[in-house]
């Protein structure tokens, strides 16, 4: 995404934001409340249209008119509310509206087998795919949302504040899950207020401030103090913008 701009009437949410993400890497998107992070991600996920800027997948320009277009290009977004059905079990949530069928009937056995396989690949400790979502912890729900997103075989997975509502231990488990997603070759975009998340799992990060993005910075090359200084300063240097 290059020089993306977006206004809502008189409010300019994004002036010029650039972001590049590569297979198997995670990029952190940092910024204050109202900085424009969600707007940027909704544009990427096809639920909002940009006003200006260039958007490319594998070097080819694309324009997403809807979330369906974005999904077809291999981009999945997990929203903060996770969009899971509390009253349904884990396996049903994996396939909401796309349940496998056999002879016209729901293939329950296959649903559970595939959900169990998906969870195991994420190192999940959810004991059974028959468990209702409502009895899972926040971290376990997040794992189900990630597992469900992976059933679409995305190339890019956007996660909006995945650890916001979690305690330290659960947040660490979700970060471990994100590592596994990266190891599958999926590119991860992580919106997070928690600097620790970015330090733990991101390869690069950008700061969005007043509708502009910073140049991407390498996370392993910086200390936590360096990064918090960048975030606190809210200063966005444009000189070394994303290639
Ligand atoms: N649909 C909308 N209509 C009008 N203004 C909007 C709309 N969506 C976002 N905005 C405005 O655009 C700006 C950026 O909002 P956005 O939600 O993208 O920020 P954010 O960085 O995700 O914030 P937070 O961390 O609080 O979620 C804000 O000023 C917000 O009020």
Name the descriptors:
243 residues; Rossmann fold; disordered C terminus; seven-stranded mixed beta sheet; binds adenosine-5'-triphosphate; P-loop_NTPase; 33% helix; ATP-binding; 22% strand; alpha/beta; ATP binding; ABC_carbohydrate_import_ATPase; 14 strands
Structural notes for this entry:
Helices cover 33% and strands 22% of the residues. It has eight helices and 14 strands. The strands form four sheets. Strands 3, 7, 10, 11, 12, 13 and 14 form a seven-stranded mixed beta sheet that branches. Strands 2-1-4 form a three-stranded antiparallel beta sheet, with no helix packed on it. A two-stranded antiparallel sheet has the order 5-6. α5 (138-150) runs parallel beside α6. The longest helix has 16 residues, at 168-183. Residues 238-243 have low confidence and may be disordered. Residues 8, 11, 13, 31, 33-39 line the site of adenosine-5'-triphosphate. Keywords: ATP-binding, Nucleotide-binding. This is Sugar ABC transporter ATP-binding protein. It comes from Methylobrevis albus.
In short:
The protein is of the alpha/beta class and 243 residues long. It has helices at 37-44, 67-72, 90-94, 108-121, 138-150, 168-183, 195-201, 224-233, and strands spanning 2-8, 11-17, 26-30, 52-54, 56-57, 60-61, 75-78, 101-102, 105-106, 156-160, 187-191, 204-209, 212-213, 217-218.
